[in-house]
Design a protein that fits this description.
58 residues; mainly beta; SH3 type barrels; 5-stranded antiparallel beta sheet; 53% strand; MM0924_fam; DUF6897
Length: 58
């Protein structure tokens, strides 16, 4: 999934679903070492790529 995110979603605002109530959103700032980094309101969220079930542009 990392190559897909880097090629198609870098710099885009996305929602990321990780199961249950876990939905994160923000701008894709980086994706390296199997970690997705989102920025939202000057705060960063780091998500393990293997936990991502779905990701989509908002």
């Amino acid at each position: 999934m990392q190559p897909f995110i880097v090629e198609h979603l870098l710099g885009e605002v996305v929602d990321v679903y990780c199961g249950g109530p876990d939905v994160f959103n923000g701008k894709v700032e980086a994706c390296a070492d199997n970690v997705l980094t989102l920025e939202h309101n000057e705060k960063y969220t780091h998500i393990a790529i293997d936990k991502i079930i779905a990701i989509w542009r908002t």
